Amino acid sequence: MVTYEKMNQTEFQEYMEFMLPDYARDISEHYLIAIEKANEEAEQQMKNLLPDQEKTEGHHLYLIKKDNENAGYLWFHIKKDEKKAFLYHIYILDSFRKQGVAKKALGFFEEEARTEDAASLGLHVFGSNVNAIELYKRLGYEQASISMNKVL
């Protein structure tokens, strides 16, 4: 059984310790910037997006649990005034992949967004994340824009 628990302060700090370096590596790789600069950018983005950490209004940060074990993380934001929800991050731990956990977590995200009267869901995915892109398409997400680069 998959369940969702709101992060407390300790869990939020542990999540940031995991997520920030991973996100910085993605920024560095995909936008061709030095890892040091990517680390700075990732940290600044998190400070801007989550000024009150896990208690930032409109942001929802969850531990995804499967059979009471940590299976991953889910972070989304709902803008009630715009009736939009945005998925900032979903991460499923390796040992829980290919078990339907991500699909269920995305269903939970959709349910929560509907509960708060969101009319649309959005997300960003790096083009190299083929498995995630396939899952999003299966769940009805459509491509809204494309950002491309070419290494010289």
Roughly what percent helix? 40-55%
Which structural class should the secondary elements be placed in? alpha+beta
Largest sheet: 5 strands, mixed
CATH architecture: 3-Layer(aba) Sandwich
Domain N-acetyltransferase: 22-152
Pfam families: Acetyltransf_1
Protein name: Ribosomal protein S18 acetylase RimI-like enzyme
Q: What does this entry look like structurally?
A:
With 152 residues, the protein is α+β, with helices and mostly antiparallel strands. It has a single domain, classed as Gcn5-related N-acetyltransferase (GNAT) (Aminopeptidase), CATH 3.40.630. Helices cover 41% and strands 24% of the residues. The chain has four helices and five strands, in the order βααβββαβα. It has a five-stranded mixed sheet, with helices on both faces. The longest helix has 23 residues, at 9-31. It starts with a strand and ends in a 14-residue tail after the last helix. Residues 22-152 form the N-acetyltransferase domain. It comes from Fictibacillus barbaricus. This is Ribosomal protein S18 acetylase RimI-like enzyme. It holds the Pfam family Acetyltransf_1.
